[in-house]
Fold this sequence. Notes:
- It contains 11 helices and 15 strands.
- By secondary structure, the chain is an alpha+beta fold.
- Strands 7, 8, 9, 10, 11, 12, 13, 14 and 15 form a 9-stranded mixed beta sheet that branches.
- The radius of gyration is 20 Å and the shape is globular.
- Bound molecules: fe (ii) ion.
- The site of fe (ii) ion (FE2) has 7 residues, from helix 5.
Amino acid sequence: MLTVEENxxxxxxxxxxxxxxxxxxxxxxxxxxxxxxxxxxxxxxxLGEDLxxxxxxxxxxxxxxxxxxxxxxxxxxxxGPLPAPRITPIQGFVVDGAIRTIGKAVVPCNWxxxxxxxxxxxxxxxxxxxxxxxxxxxxxxKVPMADRHVKIRFKEFPxxxxxxxLLEGQSEDCDDWNVGHPLIFPNMVATGxxxxxATNYSYxxxxxxxxxxxxxxxxxxxxxxxxxxxxxHLFAQTxxxxxPYRDAKGEFTLEMVDSQDIMCWVTAGPIAxxxxxxxxxxxxxxxxxxxxxxxxxxxxxxxxxPLGVVRDPGLRMVELPLERDKRHYSDGFAKHVSRTxxxxxxxxxxxxxxxxxxxxxxxx
Length: 364
Ligand SMILES: [Fe+2]
């Protein structure tokens, strides 16, 4: 439980706030590069600031007075003190030979309740397992996602927190328990998988528009297996799509995994009131993340770089190990696409054609 004041400190990211100062130490993706391809200006609200992205005749961009760089099909801005660090070259952003597609949605709630979801492995058992089975019951569909968590653990590393889980029936030498997947501080979760049929780098990136709205990006870089026949145009651009998570009546589309998460985030209110919460034994990851936020706030206030800020010009890539043999998505790539936002990608059918073998991705 947090006091009302502590909750305000951790959640508010506008100019002049303590958390806003921490957020401004990192580059933030504010749009897909393709959104600026045909235009020279674009209105942007980012970290509570109303700004305009401007592109000159030479293609150079700025966001009001702030620097902008393009990487991995995204436009990134840096709103912090100069000199700016680098955009962290996480593996999926810079890996060669990948097909890239990015989903986008504006989620009407504060960023922290979204990120806390990413250090709560057990939510998968309920929000993606039991809820999914309940929603699909009328169609007689069983999904392999409701496995019970036997134990969970969390390990800090130089870019965030790895979370690891052991599910009922798994042996302790499995990748879920020994590899896991990371929250990348402060605003991403990496999922993805490594399987013989494909390597799938999958990142969810959460960018505060303001205290009560968050730009949510689902970034996928899919590397086809050796020998796969891939239409060349799939490598030529990053394919961007909107992710609708409500139906025509305004209800959450709970047959989609990503809408299950969004329902959990949004129904906690615009800014979850943590003075009312009751944390339980499976919330140890959330507690670890909050401790990390307080610690990193204080580092920034001492004039230091916070966790994961990269200034080394020689760092080519931050490699993050990927899990193999995921159970949750053991029923093939086409089924995976149909259950997730990837179904809205303009290249969904072509992806299925390229990756039709068994392919596994985990839930976040
Ligand atoms: Fe989830």
